[in-house]
């Protein structure tokens, strides 16, 4: 059997076991416990080990810059281009999409497959790229969510001390384990230290935590898939549109940076396909709690729609990343990526184009001819 196919079947088998385990879940709290272990133990350990094996070079600063460029480009597309094709979304949904669609969650959707199909050095590069994405998701989107929240509030609420907001933001960044290990690893690398510089028992313990990363995340994907049928069609079209734009962005980067190594080129392709991040939802949840305390009648965001988007995004992105890894030799060309991206965007817009064409056709036919 082909090694790539065997690896894919292995990963799908673990996801399938996760699907079977859904019936044994007593409640969402058990699923949150698994997610807690992934995000606070297994993933930080994996990233820490991978980063300490990287040779720090100034050129690697390009990676977080590329990730941030994708975030900003997607934000502008969602904010200004998507309403032209999806005008039915109300203001809360448009704000929700503006926060959710540009964000990336490589930890749950991309890292496990990078570990399975590539090597630890590639995972370390992905973790470095995630620094730019973290800056966008944790800082810029938080500030934007608070800006929209205060826009809809009472005039006195808009004058909250800036120092208090920044202090709360800094504390939320420091409390995030992934940010702590990335910062610690970068400091150690700057100081000229590596994994061998750590005491043996510490390195061994971190390595044991890292080993369980892939299996836990794939089980979590299978256990977490619960799609709401009410928004399934709309969300599927939105995710297709997002994935198509990500492929177009990757093709542009490969065109502008032809000297990339094959591993870096593949990383540029798969990283933007990561699922939507949980952090924008956390920002929206914070806003929602404040609005409940103020008994506001007009919510800033649509939290229910955000939850459905998160639920669908993880399996969709995982499937896209699996597809890209298995056909990497065919797809890792600028024109192929651009064609695939344009195809996905066109397919996602077909219902809207059909509605517009049908409306024009009906308006062109005289009323006395209409049945």
Automatic annotation (TrEMBL):
The chain crosses the membrane at residues 6-22, 34-54, 60-85, 97-118, 124-149, 169-195, 201-223, 235-257, 263-282, 303-325, 331-350. The keyword Zinc does not apply. Coiled coil: none annotated. Keywords: Membrane, Transmembrane, Transmembrane helix, Transport. This is Permease. It comes from Robiginitalea biformata (strain ATCC BAA-864 / DSM 15991 / KCTC 12146 / HTCC2501).
């Amino acid at each position: 059997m082909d090694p790539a196919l065997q690896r894919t079947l292995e990963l799908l088998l673990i996801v399938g076991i996760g699907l079977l385990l859904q019936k044994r879940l007593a409640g969402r709290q058990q699923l949150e416990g698994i997610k807690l272990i992934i995000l606070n133990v297994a993933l930080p350990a994996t990233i820490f080990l991978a980063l300490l094996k990287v040779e720090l070079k100034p050129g690697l600063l390009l990676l977080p810059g590329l990730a941030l460029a994708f975030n900003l480009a997607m934000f502008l597309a969602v904010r200004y281009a998507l309403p032209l094709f999806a005008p039915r979304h109300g203001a809360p949904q448009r704000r929700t999409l503006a926060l959710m669609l540009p964000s990336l969650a490589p930890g749950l959707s991309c890292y496990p497959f990078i570990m399975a199909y590539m090597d630890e050095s590639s995972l370390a590069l992905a973790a470095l790229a995630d620094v730019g994405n973290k800056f966008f998701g944790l800082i810029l989107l938080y500030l934007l969510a608070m800006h929209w929240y205060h826009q809809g509030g009472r005039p006195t609420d808009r004058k909250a001390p800036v120092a208090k907001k920044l202090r709360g933001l800094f504390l939320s960044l420091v409390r995030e384990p992934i940010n702590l290990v990335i910062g610690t690893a970068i400091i150690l690398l700057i100081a000229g230290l590596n994994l061998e510089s750590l005491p043996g028992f510490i390195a061994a313990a971190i390595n044991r935590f890292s080993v369980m990363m892939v299996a836990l995340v794939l089980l979590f994907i299978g256990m977490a898939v619960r799609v709401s049928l009410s928004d399934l069609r709309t969300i599927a079209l939105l995710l297709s549109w997002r994935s198509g734009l990500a492929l177009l962005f990757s093709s542009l980067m490969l065109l502008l940076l032809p000297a990339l190594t094959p591993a870096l080129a593949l990383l540029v392709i798969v990283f933007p396909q990561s699922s939507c991040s949980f952090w924008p939802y956390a920002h929206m949840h914070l806003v929602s709690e404040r609005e409940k305390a103020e008994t506001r009648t007009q919510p800033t965001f649509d939290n229910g729609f955000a939850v459905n988007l998160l639920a669908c995004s993880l399996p969709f992105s995982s499937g896209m990343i699996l597809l890209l890894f298995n056909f990497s030799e065919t797809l890792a060309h600028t024109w192929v990526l651009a064609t695939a991206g344009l195809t996905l965007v066109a397919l996602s817009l077909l219902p809207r184009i059909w509605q517009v064409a049908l409306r024009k056709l009906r308006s062109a036919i005289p009323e006395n001819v209409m049945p």
